[in-house]
Design a protein that fits this description.
Oligomer: single chain
Structural class: alpha+beta
Order of helices and strands: EEEHHE
Strand content: 5-15%
Distance between the termini: 23 Å
Number of strands: 4
Length: 71
Amino acid sequence: LEEDGIFIIINEFFPFISLESFITNYETSPSQKLFITKILINIVSYLQNNNITHGDFNLSNLLINPEDLEI
């Protein structure tokens, strides 16, 4: 969706929380931390390889499902 030269992405509701909230409120094992780190590296790599710029890439803008660690 584009409005006044600004692109807006609208997603259906899903029960994810910010990665920042997840890190703050959930205990994670070293293997879970490694798993999340690998996913984040893949995300950054995908964005870079496809010349996609995200103006505010940070932990509060990344969503994670605490049940299965889907980001």
